[in-house]
Amino acid sequence: MSRNTTRIARLTGLAYLGIIATGIFAEVAVRMALVVDGDAAETTANIAASAGLFRLGILADVAMVGFDVAVAVGLLALLQHVHRPLAQLAAALRLIQAAVISGNLMNMAQAVQLATGGGSADALGAGAPGLVLSSMEVHALTYDLGLVFFGLSCLVLGWLLRRSGSVPALLAIGVSVAGVVYLVGSFAALCVPAWSAALDPAYGVAFLAELAFAAWLVAKGMAPRTTPSEAQVVASGA
To answer: For residues 234 and 161, which has the higher predicted lDDT (pLDDT)?
Structure first.
């Protein structure tokens, strides 16, 4: 594995860890902590009381999108030798997800504006809390829509990793399983919301698979599999 490949792999892994860190912060420390399902008044009060934290969550999502773009470019560089069209497809699907998440941040921006009395909240009066909760509900659904593209990207990426032999087979399979989890979970949230809670534990599997893959990139990099003919050339010193 060349120094350049090692460097790209490690930077890609660090960016992937950045996605995980910023994504968990925005989702768990901000949205899950402040948004109360079905309770517009409490959600609005929570966001108003923690507006700084809420805006920090928006910035975390912005950072996550930046990391996502870096990972898309890095994985394309690392895997295009395996199957260029599919490597490009995996990158494109990840970038579509990043674009959806970027546009979706407008819903969070609107929610904090209304909750803190900005924008048109004065004119809306008692109706503002309902719009705050509605904005966050639309945000959640749109986020799941973005994860559909991410799930597809993971399926393609898992195939590329398995074909390349550059990481342990278990990691490649884990990335593919993560893709299935995101696809099933997102379609459930969009089409059969009643199933969402039952599927939540599966996201733990996806989290562990992504974390393990990111950590492997940082620690080990990605060494392209050497074919028998290539091995003979190296051994002969040619």
So the answer is: 161
